[in-house]
Amino acid sequence: MTAKLAPKKVVLAYSGGLDTSIILKWLQTEYGCEVVTFTADLGQGEELAPAKQKALLMGIKEENIHIVDVREEFVRDFVFPMFRANALYEGLYLLGTSIARPLISQHLVRIAQETGADAVAHGATGKGNDQVRFELSAAALDPAIKVIAPWRLWDLTSRTKLLEFAEANQIPIAKDKRGEAPFSVDANLLHTSSEGKVLENPAEEAPEFVYQRITPVEKAPDTPEYVEIGFERGDAVSINGEALSPATILARLNDLGGKHGVGLLDFVENRFVGMKSRGLYETPGGTILLEAHRGIEQITIDAGAGHLKDSIMPRYAELIYNGFWFSPEREALQALIDKTQEYVTGTVRVKLYKGSARTVARWSDYSLYSEKHVTFEEDAGAYDQKDAEGFIRLNALRLRLIAARNARVADKG
């Protein structure tokens, strides 16, 4: 970047860890710019106060250090809308990392606008999906903002060079950072993602020491546990009859699911940038929430609306995975999804046992389920079984015509 284009003030997505601390110093030395830090409390389970202390030690003014608790916003405005869609990327992945990136980007851009910064920066590498998610979101929110991705720019291309840079610039290096980390972890209130090193060979089972949140199934309780989740318009609002905030609901379901070994996924996915990668995802609360949401939808959504919603889900999930949360097509799909949730209100009972979360009961004042129509006993005239004959005859008409045509063609041949 030429001096003319070099930023004067940059808002950095800052965790306080070694990599983002190196990026902070690199921005200062490379551009001579003022750096503003943003650290998001997404429920990752780490103490965030040290991030402020490290930033102060590296010369960041206190007014330029932003640590924001976004847990409720994350679940309410990002996780819950996604779960109304029952979104799964490639049929399995609950998008725990993907859905956090637009929120982080939103705050980076907001802080940049509030502080007069002309650029934002992130620590995503040039091989991953996160660089795409951060930068597509930033472009949608502020088309004029510059985005700096040091991993695509600097010559610190090895762990040795990173450590040498840290030592030369008096950046503290934790003892466990001296050697190669056995795997890397990204965590938030929805999930924990572990990748790299011991997980890179998909032919090898992930070692148990990788697990962050979930009790191995073999060590989970031998007694099942039941949890009742209340929904209003597609969003969870209570657990066992107790009204709770969105973040509290997800945190409590994480505890329950983790204890029973629920929500572990060993997954080889297709990254947007073109390569395959293997990760171990732990999403205990999200797995329970998805099962319960499906359970309440079973009795409250009409078949036509439900099947339409299911048909667009893969596209919706792919948009989130690829970083298009702020795109008009995602918003259009969201409007359709939210329309289907108008009567998705009621309660679901889920049984947790040895790695499984299974709906065992569901009820709602808006239920479409009619016992008198499906009963094997006397239905008091609710359904005339003779009507099925005409229904089948009309639906079979085109099949008969196709069969007759094929027989004609075969006779001529």
Question: How would you describe this structure to a colleague?
Answer:
Residues 183-401 form the Arginosuccinate synthase C-terminal domain. By secondary structure, the protein is of the alpha/beta class. The chain folds into 3 domains: 9-71 and 96-177, HUPs (Rossmann fold, 3-Layer(aba) Sandwich); 184-301 and 343-363, Argininosuccinate synthetase, chain A, domain 2 (Alpha-Beta Complex); 371-412, no CATH class. It is 41% helix and 19% strand. Strand 13 (346-353) and strand 14 (356-363) form a beta hairpin. The longest helix is centred in the last third of the chain and has 26 residues, at 387-412.
- CATH domain class name of the largest domain: Alpha Beta
Strand content: 15-25%
- Ends distance: 72 Å
* Succession of helices and strands: EHEHEHHEHEHEEEEEHEEHHHEEHH
EC number: 6.3.4.5
Binding site for ATP: 13-21, 40, 123
GO molecular function: argininosuccinate synthase activity; ATP binding
Binding site for L-aspartate: 125, 129-130
